[in-house]
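Deliverable D2.4 — example input (structure tokens):
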């Protein structure tokens, strides 16, 4: 373990539903890595710290440039599980040269973070992880894309069970991202388009064969996949309602369907479908996505510690590694007809 990783990773929002699972996932992947659970409710934070072991807590004040941390406190990285409207967490990471990961910034609101990077490009590595469930759709899509020579279209559809919206911070994020930007960005026949109304609607076949109605949704997945694959058409659609597992009378599940069309490596034209299902919903997937992002930023897997820069998950993380970690965490991945 390097000198830097002897300092704890600060997980802001680490006592919430998703943040606490991310802390547990990071502990499973990196048993010796120190972790600090940051938040406002110290009772909840201390409970998570005790459960994962090798962790302590910190009271976080996002209204302060120093996050309310004493002068001698040092961290190895900062991971954000809530929207920081002040960007003080990013400023703190840049001021201290710390890797920074955030998952709550919508595609339409990345400007302030990008501007912070442009003004201080050599200060810290910044991982913009606000893709669907922290890269756990984009990276598998790129893994499945390896069987293609050229890609014409990528369509991703996700089912978020209405009982699986997460804690208060996650609900606020969802409300903001669905209401503040009434239009969604898609790539159609090589052109970026903001769509609404009927053009934003799409139906798809769910994992149990049910026809599901969905709406185009703008996260960073589309722009990231477009840059990585040169596909001519890409869209991400979200359906909020009843998951297939709950229709069977079971607890809610998380479902992501990835369909890729293009020329296969054997020269044939084809369309390939994969389904990713987690029986415990979206939180375990997000947890794995963030944990993998943190260990990559710190250079604990996949190469040296990441240099200062502005990154998307697929630029740093090996898709095959993400798929392996998702399977280990209980994700069921199957190739569909």
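Example output (designed residues):
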């Amino acid at each position: 373990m390097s000198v830097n990783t002897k300092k704890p990773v600060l997980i802001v929002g680490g006592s919430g539903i998703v943040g606490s699972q991310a802390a547990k996932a990071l502990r499973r992947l990196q048993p010796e890595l120190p972790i600090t659970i940051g938040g406002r409710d110290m009772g909840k934070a201390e409970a998570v710290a005790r459960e994962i072991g090798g962790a302590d807590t910190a009271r976080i004040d996002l209204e302060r440039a120093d996050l309310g941390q004493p002068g001698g406190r040092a961290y190895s990285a900062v991971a954000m599980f809530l929207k920081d409207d002040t960007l003080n967490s990013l400023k703190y990471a840049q001021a201290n040269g710390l890797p920074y990961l955030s998952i709550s910034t919508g595609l339409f609101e990345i400007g302030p973070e990008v501007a912070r990077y442009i003004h201080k490009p050599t200060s810290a590595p910044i991982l913009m992880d606000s893709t669907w469930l922290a890269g756990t759709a984009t990276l598998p899509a790129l893994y499945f894309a390896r069987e293609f020579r050229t890609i014409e279209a990528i369509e991703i559809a996700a089912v978020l069970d209405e009982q699986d919206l997460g804690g208060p911070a996650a609900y606020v994020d969802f409300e903001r991202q669905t209401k503040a930007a009434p239009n969604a960005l898609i790539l159609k026949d090589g052109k970026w388009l903001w769509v609404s109304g009927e053009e934003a609607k799409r139906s798809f076949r769910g994992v149990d064969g049910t026809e599901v109605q969905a709406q185009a949704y703008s996260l960073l997945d589309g722009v990231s996949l477009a840059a990585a694959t040169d596909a001519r058409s890409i869209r991400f659609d979200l359906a909020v309602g009843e998951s297939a597992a709950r229709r069977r009378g079971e607890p809610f599940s998380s479902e992501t369907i990835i369909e890729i069309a293009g020329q296969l490596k054997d020269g044939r034209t084809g369309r390939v479908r994969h389904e990713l299902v987690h029986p415990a919903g979206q939180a375990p997937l997000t947890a794995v996505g963030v944990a993998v992002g943190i260990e990559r930023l710190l250079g604990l897997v996949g190469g040296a510690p990441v240099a200062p820069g502005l990154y998307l998950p697929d630029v740093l993380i090996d898709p095959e590694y993400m798929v392996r970690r998702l399977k280990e965490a209980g994700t069921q991945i199957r190739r569909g007809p």
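Residues 4-133+285-318 form a domain with the Rossmann fold fold (CATH 3.40.50.720).
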